[in-house]
Structure formats: structure tokens, C-alpha cells
């Protein structure tokens, strides 16, 4: 009996062993199982039954095997077919982020993510993905996509009869013959009730109303009253405002402490320097009225705010020629005309009847092909081609098509443009969404 039991036990062990080997030999590897699941999902794809393909692919993605990327990409396609269903958008974005955060990331996934966000008007996310992808991959295709989309803009609702050039993050605006001050995107914060306004700097502007000149703060509170009779004033900067008194120009502080030096004309300070006309000749003075470029020239190139100097550079005019001076030293060749440098390093200059751009060393960086041009601000410059104005990038490419009657420089992400309705403001989406430039 005992012998029989031992034989039965041995036979049972043999059976178990054989069954185990059959199971082992018949088991599929992760690669095989993943491939099988992908095959099943493909059948559903062919029939466009994505709701059944998705869970199969989710199982396939769970295997860490050689077909994982293929399964993920199929799963993303399935998600996109059901993107408006509850929870699918979240799952799709999570899968994109998983792929972008891998050590073997590829530019294609960043492009896919950016295009998805752009199509959904999620500009903050799109620009973040593009910048991250460019930093990680140095992809030229990603860079091109960024350059092609970073200049998308929206037109603001405010409309004005006239505007000044933007100064910092504010701009003078006019309605019905009266002036106020707006932020750079056109949003009014000082009402249009003045005969004239200066630039708004360091928390104040100088205004004129009913023949009275005084300074105001951003809430339109009066800060100081000019008690001396002045017939005109310039723009406020560096706690200085030019005043026209008895036919001569003087500089005063924001509280109207008037200096002693008289000029035939004096411009707005920028970079601690301003153009000055003295006894019929032009030079450049500093904030203390010292001449840093002698008053011996026929003219100085100034912008509409009276500014002439930036980044140590100024354009002086002698006869019919314009010359670049950097730190008081003449640089490069003569030009027919120019626009003062902005905060960035490219200035518009005219040669052979066309406008191009030079850098601070006088080297041509964008060739002479525009009918008119302004210097760069925030990586963009207003240019005129034929009858309309648009904007060119620092690479020399037109990135905002010439469709405007007139255009001014960008500042704080926005620029004033003249349309058939009047002066309106365009704001770059990248800037408006908080991404900066």
C-alpha cells in the first residue's frame, strides 16, 4: 500500500512538472503580448472603433517592451479621435508629457504638443513647450515653428484719433481733440481731457488744461503746478521736462524747479543725454547741461518724443549726410537718413533711397529694401512696403504682414497701428499670456 502511494505521488509530481513546462513554454514574452495587443487594436482602428481600441492600447503601453512607443503613438491617435469626451483630453496631455519628459525625447513630440495647444488656443502652454523643446533638442524645426507663431497677435478694442510713440509702458492718446494717457495696449488710465500731455515716467506726467500746466500722478491727482508762464513743454524723463519760456527752452524738474541754461531747443533725455540746439547749431548735452557732443552740426536725428540718444549712440547730421556717433566717436559711413536706436541694438538707416538696419558697430544686419522703417523694439521693427506697414523680425523676415496704414514701435508687448477705424493696438499673444518675449 505504501509503495502504491509513493508511486501515485511520484506520478502526480511528474504531471505537475510537465504541466508547468507546458505553461512556461506556451507563455508569451512582453514583446509578443504587446505586439498581439497592437494587432487587436489595429483591427479596431481599421473599423474606426476607437473607443474599443483605446483600452487595448492602454494595456499594451503598460508593458515595458520594444513596441511601447508604437503603442503610445497609436493610443494618442485614438485619444485625438475622442478628444472632447470626458477625461480623454487629460489622458492625451499626460501621455504627451510622459514622452516629453523621457531622456530620449524627440523634437516630434514637442511639435505635436505645441500644435495641439495652439489649436486649442492654449498659448501659454504652447510657447512653454516650444521653448522647452528648443532648449532640450536644439531642433531647427521647433525653432521655425516658434518663430512662425510667436508673432501672432490680437487687436484691441480701444480706438483713438491720434497717438504718440509709446514711452516705457504708456502712451499718449487723443479723442475728440483732447489727450489722455493709456497703457501700451491702449487701456486708458488718464482720461482724454487735456490740451496736451507729456510722456508718463516715474509715476508722473506733465499736462496742460485751460492754459494751466501742472504735473499729475497715475490716478490723475495734481502733484505740482507750474507758476511761471510757459507757452509749451516737451516730454518728461529722468525728472526733467523741457519748458518754452519767453522764446527759449529751459529744463525743469518734475516739481518745476527751472534750470538756468537756455537753449534754442532741447530734447527729451534718454540714457542721460538729449539733443540741443544752441545758437543755430546742434549738439548733445547731458543731464547737467554739459555738452558731450559739441554744438557744431546741422542737425540731430530725433524721434517723435524728442529722444535722440540710446546705447551710447546718436545720429548727427551734417549737410545732407547723417553719421553715427557712439560714445562721441564717429562710426561707419554716411547715410541719407536714420531713426534713433531703441533699447535693442538695431537702428533703421536709409541708403540708396531704401531703408535697412545696422547694429551699434555700424555693420549692416538687414539689407536696404524697405520704403520706410523705424528702429527695433522688442525684437520687432515697423517697416513700410509699398503703401502699408507691417513688422520685421531681427532675422530680417516679415513676421506681421504689411496691412496697416501706419504703425509704430512695440513696447511692453503691444504696438499702435492705424487702421480704417483709427488708431488701434495689437498685442502679441505670447506676451499677453505672460510668456514674455
Rg, alpha carbons: 34 Å
Strand content: 25-35%
**CATH architectural group of the domain at 31-154:** Alpha Horseshoe
Largest sheet: 4 strands, antiparallel
Distance between the termini: 92 Å
Give the helix proportion (percent range).
Answer: 25-40%
CATH fold node name of the domain at 31-154: Serine Threonine Protein Phosphatase 5, Tetratricopeptide repeat
- Going by helix content, strand content and strand pairing, the class is alpha+beta
- Main CATH class of the domain at 31-154: Mainly Alpha
Low-confidence stretches: 15-26
Outline: elongated
Task: Describe, in plain words, how this protein is organized in 3D.
The protein is of the alpha+beta class. The chain has a domain at 31-154: Tetratricopeptide repeat domain (Serine Threonine Protein Phosphatase 5, Tetratricopeptide repeat), CATH 1.25.40.10. Helix content is 28%, strand content 34%. The protein has nine helices and 31 strands. The strands form eight sheets. The chain has a four-stranded antiparallel β-sheet. Strands 2-3-4-5 form a four-stranded antiparallel β-sheet, with no helix packed on it. It is elongated. The N and C termini lie far apart (92 Å). The model is unreliable at 15-26 (pLDDT under 50).
Amino acid at each position: 500500500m505504501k509503495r502504491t502511494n509513493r508511486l501515485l505521488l511520484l506520478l502526480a509530481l511528474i504531471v505537475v512538472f510537465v504541466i508547468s513546462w507546458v505553461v512556461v513554454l506556451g507563455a508569451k514574452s512582453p514583446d509578443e503580448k504587446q505586439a498581439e495587443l497592437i494587432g487587436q487594436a489595429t483591427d479596431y482602428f481599421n473599423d474606426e472603433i476607437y473607443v474599443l481600441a483605446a483600452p487595448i492600447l492602454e494595456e499594451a503601453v503598460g508593458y515595458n517592451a520594444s513596441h511601447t512607443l508604437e503603442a503610445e503613438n497609436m493610443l494618442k491617435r485614438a485619444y485625438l479621435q475622442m478628444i472632447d469626451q470626458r477625461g480623454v483630453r487629460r489622458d492625451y496631455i499626460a501621455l504627451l508629457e510622459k514622452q516629453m519628459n523621457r531622456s530620449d525625447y524627440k523634437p516630434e513630440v514637442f511639435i505635436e504638443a505645441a500644435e495641439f495647444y495652439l489649436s486649442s488656443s492654449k498659448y501659454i502652454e504652447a510657447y512653454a513647450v516650444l521653448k522647452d523643446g528648443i532648449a532640450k533638442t536644439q531642433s531647427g524645426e521647433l525653432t521655425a515653428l516658434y518663430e512662425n507663431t510667436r508673432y501672432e497677435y490680437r487687436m484691441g478694442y480701444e480706438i483713438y484719433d491720434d497717438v504718440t510713440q509709446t514711452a516705457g509702458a504708456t502712451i499718449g492718446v487723443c479723442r475728440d481733440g483732447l489727450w489722455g494717457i493709456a497703457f501700451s495696449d491702449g487701456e486708458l488710465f488718464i482720461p482724454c481731457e487735456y490740451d496736451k500731455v507729456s510722456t508718463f515716467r516715474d509715476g508722473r506726467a506733465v499736462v496742460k488744461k485751460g492754459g494751466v500746466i501742472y504735473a499729475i500722478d497715475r490716478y490723475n491727482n495734481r502733484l505740482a503746478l507750474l507758476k511761471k508762464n510757459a507757452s509749451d513743454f516737451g516730454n518728461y524723463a529722468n525728472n526733467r521736462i523741457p519748458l518754452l519760456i519767453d522764446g527759449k527752452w529751459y529744463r525743469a524738474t518734475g516739481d518745476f524747479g527751472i534750470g538756468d541754461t537756455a537753449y534754442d531747443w532741447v530734447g527729451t533725455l534718454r540714457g542721460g543725454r538729449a539733443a540741443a540746439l544752441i545758437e543755430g547749431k546742434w549738439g548733445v548735452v547731458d543731464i547737467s547741461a554739459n555738452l558731450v557732443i559739441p554744438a557744431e552740426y546741422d542737425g540731430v536725428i530725433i524721434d517723435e518724443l524728442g529722444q535722440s540718444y540710446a546705447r551710447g549712440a546718436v545720429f548727427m547730421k551734417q549737410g545732407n549726410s547723417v553719421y553715427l556717433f557712439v560714445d562721441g566717436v564717429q562710426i561707419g559711413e554716411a547715410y541719407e537718413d536714420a531713426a534713433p536706436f531703441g533699447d535693442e541694438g538695431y537702428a533703421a538707416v536709409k541708403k540708396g533711397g531704401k531703408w535697412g538696419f545696422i547694429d551699434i558697430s555700424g555693420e549692416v544686419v538687414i539689407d536696404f529694401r524697405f520704403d520706410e522703417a523705424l528702429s527695433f523694439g522688442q525684437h520687432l521693427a515697423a517697416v513700410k512696403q509699398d503703401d502699408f506697414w507691417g513688422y520685421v523680425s531681427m532675422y530680417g523676415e516679415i513676421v506681421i504682414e504689411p496691412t496697416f496704414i501706419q504703425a509704430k514701435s512695440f513696447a511692453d508687448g503691444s504696438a499702435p497701428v492705424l487702421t480704417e477705424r483709427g488708431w488701434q493696438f495689437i498685442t502679441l499673444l505670447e506676451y499677453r499670456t505672460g510668456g514674455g518675449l
